[in-house]
Amino acid sequence: MPQSLDPLDVERLLRRLPVTQAPESVWDGIQAALKAPEVARAVPPLKRPVPRWLMAAAVVLAVVTGTLGGLFRWYRAPSAWAVLPVAGRPTIAGAALTSADQLGAGEWLVTDAFSRAELSVGRIGTAEVGPNSRVQLDRGGLTQHRLTLEHGRLQVVISAPPRLFLVQTPSVLATDLGCAYTLEVDSAGASRLHVTAGWVELKQGDATSLVPAGLVAEVMVGERPGTPYPPELPDDARMALRRLDAGTGNVADLDVVFVALHGPSDFITLRRQSGITLWHLLQRVPPGMREGVYQRLAELSAPPAGVTREGILALQRPMLERWRRDLSPMWSEEAQAWWTRVARRLWEWTIN
């Protein structure tokens, strides 16, 4: 261990060192630094902070992206659907159905007179396949869940955004708009739809019928979707309505429908059901018969503000839609809050 130096020895050594004068340039630099502003000798400034609006936009983008990703994951159409036998011996590709089977794309599920099956519609609902039915799982898009009902009956319950579940029959395409319904197809390919909750769109070519809860619509092969009507409508009125839909009806058929529909009533549901039938007829009867339909509809439910007789007889779409919303607010998405409508439009644009 080296010995520590005595302070006196250190002082003597320092006195023996030669003294050298520093150059003038060194002192000039020191004096200039002392006279400079404090900012010049401070630490360099920090970077400019990120604007709040940019941070908020990034958060919103992350939330929207995550939400859409979650929705697509949840509502994505699987390539095979779980199916369970409910009664009898349903078959897939000729083989008896078991509790572990799935219906794959392109495969047919067949039931006889004594069998039924329950089909899981992805994660969005169920479809019970009735007796004497033949159903195929179609290949849809990323989110479309599609079936073909060749004949028989489907009892459907769906809980999802609109236009995710579609059923093609020989006579019409039924698009679920968030609802529950029964769809039947007879041996000739004619379809009969009874909606019990929400509403369903029936489309064939350019012709469309919108069927709300509580009403029935029929479609013959090669004809446009029928006018929705109350299920208790008498047979003669139903036949008259079918002729009017086909373009072969006359004023006598129209009178039969008028008599069969409920007259002015204190029960708003009855008025609206009859009104929806007449609202469809307005756009299907010849111009010479349109005045009578307008008068009858106005008696059941007075046109709302902004809807005129002349505009309705001219089939002006904004006025027709306004009257439709007044007839059945629960039937129309326009009666929903604006943010719900915007979300629905965005969803439909995204999946289409």
Give a structural overview.
This protein has a domain at 232-352. The protein is built from ten helices and 16 strands. Helix 4 (235-246) crosses helix 5. The protein has a 16-stranded mixed sheet that branches. It is elongated. With 352 residues, the protein is of the alpha+beta class. It has helices at residues 7-16, 24-35, 52-75, 235-246, 251-260, 268-282, 287-300, 309-313, 317-327, 338-351, and strands at 80-87, 91-92, 95-96, 102-104, 108-110, 116-121, 125-129, 134-138, 145-158, 165-168, 173-176, 180-185, 191-197, 199-204, 207-212, 216-219. The model is unreliable at 264-270 and 330-339 (pLDDT under 50).
Main sheet: strands, sense, barrel? 16 strands, mixed
Order of helices and strands: HHHEEEEEEEEEEEEEEEEHHHHHHH
The amount of beta strand, in percent, is 15-25%
* Poorly predicted spans: 264-270, 330-339
Q: Work out the number of β strands.
A: 16
Query: Helix amount, in percent?
Result: 25-40%
Structural class call reads alpha+beta
Helix tally?
10
How would you state the average pLDDT, rounded? 82
End-to-end distance: 87 Å
Rough outline: elongated
Radius of gyration: 38 Å
